[in-house]
Specification:
The complex is a heterodimer of chains A (113) and B (114). Chain A has 113 residues and is an all-beta fold. Chain A has no helices and twelve strands. In chain A, strands 2, 5, 6, 10, 11 and 12 form a six-stranded mixed beta sheet that branches. A four-stranded antiparallel beta sheet of chain A has the order 3-9-8-7, with no helix packed on it. In chain A, strands 1-4 form a two-stranded antiparallel sheet. In chain B, strand 4 and strand 5 form a beta hairpin. Chain B is mainly beta and 114 residues long. In chain B, 35% of the residues are buried. In chain B, 0% of the residues lie in helices and 56% in strands. The chains are: A mainly beta (113), B mainly beta (114). The interface between A and B is medium-sized, with 26 and 22 residues.
Chain lengths: 113, 114
């Protein structure tokens, strides 16, 4: 079975501060992991993906995530938040052979000036 | 032109109405998906088509009926819906129904059932 847990339905940061969005996964085999972002009134957009190559994955808009097998985590970070980063972020996991992507419940990022 | 286009963007329908949602992808992908997004719930996969063949029906009620006439078009036919069916319906496509093919989403249809 595979699942993903996103800790914190809302995260608030100030502009320029570090962004850290948490994602923990459960999978019986080494998984593929994704982060998607959803801006208001839009669909989801791929930020980055981990597919068993480098454990530190760089994505669009300055975001990156690190795969840590020992912690079953795939947290999303950005060194300096921008107002335009305010959106909802979804972590997703798929176990090879399952062919079914499982999404977390999402974390809404709020950025204040 | 965006990669995945959904129409209409908003739809209000009564419980006795029949309506259809349309999705079109311009990415040359072979797999297409319908997802339901409700507040405070994870995205729910409804249907998957791979090379026009339905490969997944995630225990969706029969009042939702998908149609995939070709690899570029996907429809969701709706009839006798319930108020709890009100949600954002997202269409997505991917290169194939493989494990690491990322999904490309449309902007969704916001459905309200009255």
């Amino acid at each position: 079975a595979q699942s993903v847990t996103q800790l914190g339905s809302h995260v608030s940061v100030s502009e320029g501060a570090l962004v850290l969005l948490r994602c923990n996964y459960s999978s019986s085999v080494p998984p593929y992991l994704f982060w998607y972002v959803q801006y208001p009134n839009q669909g989801l957009q791929l930020l980055l993906k981990y597919t068993s190559a480098a454990t530190l994955v760089k994505g669009i808009n300055g975001f990156e995530a690190e795969f840590k097998k020992s912690e079953t985590s795939f947290h999303l970070t950005k060194p300096s938040a921008h107002m335009s980063d305010a959106a909802e972020y979804f972590c997703a996991v798929i176990s090879p052979g399952f062919q079914k992507l499982v999404f977390g419940t999402g974390t809404r990022l709020l950025v204040s000036p | 032109e965006t990669g995945v286009t959904q129409t209409p963007r908003h739809l209000v329908m009564g419980m006795t109405n029949k309506k259809s949602l349309k999705c079109e992808q311009h990415l040359g992908h072979n797999a297409m998906y319908w997802y339901k997004q409700s507040a405070k719930k994870p995205l729910e996969l409804m249907f998957v088509y791979n090379f026009k063949e339905q490969t997944e029906n995630n225990s969706v009620p029969s009042r939702f009926s998908p149609e995939c006439p070709n690899s570029s078009h996907l429809f969701l036919h709706l009839h006798t819906l319930q108020p709890e069916d009100s949600a954002l319906y997202l269409c997505a496509s991917s290169q194939g129904q493989t494990d690491n093919s990322p999904l490309h989403f449309g902007n969704g249809t916001r459905l309200t059932v009255t």
